[in-house]
Amino acid sequence: MKKVTSILILAVLLLAVLSSVSFGIKTASAQAAGYTIQNVEHQIEIMYSGNVVIRDTFTVSGQITGGFLIGFPYKYGAYLLKAVAFSTDQVYPMNLGVRLGDQSGFYGTEVTFPEGSPQVFTVVFILANNLLTKTAEGFSLDFPAYPSLAQAASRSNVTLILPEGSTLFNVTKNDGVVSKITFVKENLPALAYFPATANLNIPAALVRQIAITSLNRVVTLGPAGEIAVSDSYRIVNNSTDEIGSLKLDVPANAFNIAGKDDFGRALAVQILSDSRNPIVVPVNVTLLGALRGGQSGTIEIDYSFPILPPEQTRFASELELFPYLSYYVYIASVSIVPPEGAHIVMPSLSSADPYSSLDRELFQETLRINREGVSYIDRDVPIENVLQFAYDYNPLWLSLRPTLWVWALAAVGIVVGAFLRRPKPHAPPKMQVPKLSASFSRDHVRAFVEAYEERSKISQELKSLVARAQKGKIPRRQYKVQRRALELRFDSLSRQINELKATFRNAGGNYANLVKQLDATETELNKIEANIRNAEARHRTGEIPLEEYKQTLDDLRKRKEKAESAINGILLRLREEIR
User: What structural domains does the chain harbor?
Assistant: First the structure.
């Protein structure tokens, strides 16, 4: 009996030990069986803008049926800007931020294959340029040494693709230090956790840690088939060093290349040679003033394309929306503006993608296409980057404006002739007309600027007061009293401003023109604010989807900023008059 008891006690202790060991092991849920990962080509690239590109090309055998999980250590997830999965002829859906197996500490993504998985496919991640930091010897690059997969891979070939002329000192990772740009990992385990640091020496001109927040490309087509392009870049310096010049890309067949800043001042442009990229020609743009860390600025590159030959009255061409860009652009747009009187026949509204819009005015049509996350990676993805564009244009439209001017002059001549030939009345009674004695001085300008600025300040205070009342941060009675006082002051300033505007118009010359511009800009600003309120109301009622609402709101806010900048510019010119 004692022997049996001892055996039972020993079995219980053994079971307890085995249970504790099993609970201490972190398991990883592997993907559905039926395939194996034979090889992974893991490439790390550095863009000109300092962004890090992770390109993983997988060779598998078998069929993936439950989705393909891939990721990296969790800290890199905060830097992810874009992810795309594709094969030679298809782009695959991706789910971001999914759990990678049953183990924490990873940022995972899932690639799904609706029509069956290929034997070879590629997954590309673009990360922010904060992973590249300046050191005394050059740069330090933080990156995942190997892909983190939910299933083991037989082999992983790692390649660091650095800017030409760069030097690699070493790569430090958990499984050892290497000093070559290529290394191999045999039998890569599932859920590999290998952050790495590469110490590099990169010439300063080959990498600029910048954020290109927007690229607005305007393609203007002339009556005779001329093509003029204007690329406007909004750039932020993300580094601590000053930037005095930047390398930007233009198509290889462009000519008459010129640059200017956001004030319209000409910038020196030097055409560089880069045999690695025959699609584009890099140009070095020298800024008039260095861009310090954290500062932003606008650079515009203007160039022309060869003339587009017509087929009778129809012009057709293939326009490449975004050629090879060696940097990452957060938001990009292309506006195609045909000649006045032209009719766009391709693409039609039914065939246009959801990120495009066609604006039609009385004599002008404009096609606008929007994209997010544009770079040279898009050239590898099998998506439509070439636009089939065609429009009908009758050369008789060239004579439209001269004809209108002739008609207008003829009408004026008829009216003047009729007035001069009118019979003169005999001895008309003399009437005493009061003389206008409105004097104009700098005091009027000073009063106008001060009143306008005070009214703008009161307008902001009214908006802030309404917001505080809606949140319940101010008593209702106090809100009514303060709002009434602000509205009375606002109305008083508006009357004063209108009276001074009349004085400016009577003064004529530059002052009358400034008031005319101010009135037009104020009308545009009021229309934009009304459109913003309308979009917000439609979004609240569910009439427009979230993506369309965000895009509409972004366009309206940009137009609002442009209008407010125009008003500030007018006020600045008036302030200069009273200095």
Answer: 35-204 (2.60.40), 210-396 (2.60.40.1730), 442-577 (no CATH)
